[in-house]
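Quick board copy: two proteins, each given as sequence then tokens.
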Amino acid sequence: MLIGKRIKDLRIEKNMSQQELGDLIGVTKVSICGYENGTRTPSLETFSLLADIFGTSTDFLLGREVPVVNESSNEYIGSVSKEDIELIQEMRHYPNLYNKMLKDVKRFITLMNKKIR
């Protein structure tokens, strides 16, 4: 479950234990564990508290995409997910591979798909 993964990733990023996060929002460590593994769903109030603690939006926790804005014109361009951004950042560690991908994205993806079958 994406919500659980995001809660866990943000908690770890802030160097918090499940107990510490639970104490901050008034739930047990078991509840935090349940949110993270998808067996429990936080209430709307708890969900809002989580977003405040992590300094993010509830939309992000829900897996909605991050808006992309043109820096010079301040115009909305579109949106991408955090996972997409992480993929691009990781690909940039391999410049030759990244540049080949950019030349013909559709062909590159087709080849990769054939390779993993």
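And the next:
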Amino acid sequence: MQKRTFSLAYLSSHRCTPHEAVLVAAESGYAYVGLRLWPNAPQAPQQYLIDHPQEIKETLAAMRDTGIGIFDLEIIRINESFNVHTWDALYEIGAKLGAKAILVAGDDSDESRLTDNYANLCEVIQPFGMTADLEFMPWTAVPNAASALRIIKNAGSPLGAGILVDALHFGRSNTTLEDISSISPSLLHYSQMCDAQAGTDFTHEELIHTARSARELPGDGNIDLKGLVGALPNNLPISVEVINLENEAQYSPMEWAKKCLQKCKPYF
């Protein structure tokens, strides 16, 4: 059996600077980390690496010393005023770090324009060696797996296109295991794992609150993680993404990272 690759997601290590996240990942049994170098909203939490030369130096040194790689970078949001060059600095630091993917959210209710901008993004980041992984989230303009797949197909299935399956959004959107199975493995570059209470009757505010601050450890909710894992390629890298501000306060970042991975591994 091929050994599964695990990455320590930003939301699981949000208390760490980039170089601290690398060191925590190395001590906790991960092969990669994910970094949020661009906030998901103005003044929202992020990690600082762009235009921080000392942190870049320390992060590259930690990567070199530990062998830990950078898997994904966050986050690009495609809205009605999207300009692909807004994120030039993110593409450049991604190439410098050898990152594999950039997480993309779709916020433009005009799906035709969103599709065109996504195709443009895929074209622009191609020279930087990363994929553009479109994450479906039930409160966004890409609310489920079917909509993500439709956008990518209508974009012409460009090089570097991808769909990011987050267990939380699978469990809280109108997405079935058949929808997941129907995604070509060529479009799946990694998946995010956590748990929560499944269902589609949550409010907009409740969806966002859980996603950003109250996810559960795998096995502590009732999302069909076993079914989801079975519907995904068996060699797909897994980003362990569990933020729970109340529960994780009892643990150091290292202890929390270890606990997240320990709870995740039995599903693989």
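Board note added afterward: Residues 13 and 72 are 13 Å apart (CA to CA).
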